[in-house]
Amino acid sequence: METATETQVTHEKAGENAGNQNSSAQNAESERKLQLLCEAADEMKAHDITILDVRGQTIVADFFVICDGTSVTHIKSIGEGVQERLRERASLRAKPEGDALSFWMILDYSDVILHIFDTQTREFYDLERLWADAKVSKFQGAEGTESTPE
Known about the structure:
There is one protein chain. The chain is α+β, with helices and mostly antiparallel strands. It has helices at about 5-45, 70-90, 120-125, 125-130; strands spanning about 45-55, 65-70, 95-100, 105-110, 110-120, 135-140. The chain is about 45% helix and about 25% strand. A hairpin with a 4-residue loop joins strand 3 and strand 4. The longest helix is centred in the N-terminal third of the chain and has 40 residues, at about 5-45. The radius of gyration is 19 Å and the shape is globular. About 30% of the residues are buried.
């Protein structure tokens, strides 16, 4: 027969396991969304797609994806193309902020946020430095190469 303390510990462990499973499912969903978003940006010829893993550093998101376009038209095309592809492929809708004319466009997918800059604006705000404690990785495009300008 279990004591009250043993029963409490058993229930706490069950709660922790449920929380861990929930967290694992959320991480898997965030990573799936991250992959779809990066692939869509790459298809739209976004340059220098960089992923910042900010889990545990902010409650705002799990990942920031930073990329740049070559012109106002290109920035706008990246934003529209990513939104369209994520709507089609995963029924996901973004909360957009800014626009191509401001040289910084944000697509907020809750746990994954895409920042689309022109090169000069990206260098000025330098989000990679601002979030220096984040784990940084470069997205490898469809051809297995980094999405960097030529």
